[in-house]
Amino acid sequence: MRIVLDTNVLVAGLLNPVGACGRLLDLVLDGAVVCSADERILQEYEEVLRRARLALPAGPVREVLAFLRQSADLVAPLPLDRKLPDPDDLPFLEVAAAAGAILVTGNLRHFPKKALGRVTVVSAAESLDLLRRSA
After folding, report:
1. What's the whole-model pTM score?
2. In the sheet that 2-5 helps form, which strands lie side by side, from edge to edge?
């Protein structure tokens, strides 16, 4: 399965490794799931995960960032003329559209159905269910 991870999923996975986001992050790090991204997304990951106020564990942050820099499927985004509640979410939708990937987010309300086109947007728990059913 090919996915695009919204940054909030990485944050939640690092804060709670046993929750749905943490389990999904483990699958990404184990290579069981292909994570697609572009340079904008990788830069956002780095900027957000290193915020001092989040107090994320430095070792796992370094590991996740290094893995994604080295192993993410880098995709040329498909430019979309979509209006989202948070315009900063558009790169995630554009990469998911270009890669034919599922977009995994903790903020489903940021991706209204009318703006999605053919992109499927799910929560981390829903993505784990999809993985179980496809195995």
Report:
1. 0.95
2. 73-74, 34-37, 2-5, 102-104, 121-122
CATH superfamily, with its number, for domain 2-134: 5'-nuclease (3.40.50.1010)
Using a 10 angstrom Cβ sphere, with 0-12 exposed, 13-18 middle and 19 or more buried, the burial of residue 27 is: middle
Q: What pLDDT does 115 receive?
A: 73
- 112 pLDDT exceeds 90? no
- Distance between CA atoms of residues 84 and 94, nearest Å: 12
Q: Token pair of 102, please?
A: 């599922």
Mean pLDDT of 17-42: 97
For the chain, the distance separating the N- and C-terminal CA atoms, rounded to the nearest angstrom, is: 10
In the 8-state DSSP scheme, what is residue 101? Answer: P
* pLDDT at position 114 over 90: no
d(CA 12, CA 9): 5
Neighbours of 80 (CB within 10 A): 18
Query: Strand runs (DSSP E) across 6-72, as ranges?
Result: 34-37
- Which residues, in sequence order, are CB contacts of 55 under 8 Å at separation 6+? none
Q: Distance (Å, rounded) from C-alpha 4 to C-alpha 69? A: 14
What is the C-alpha separation between 1 and 103, in angstroms, rounded?
Answer: 11
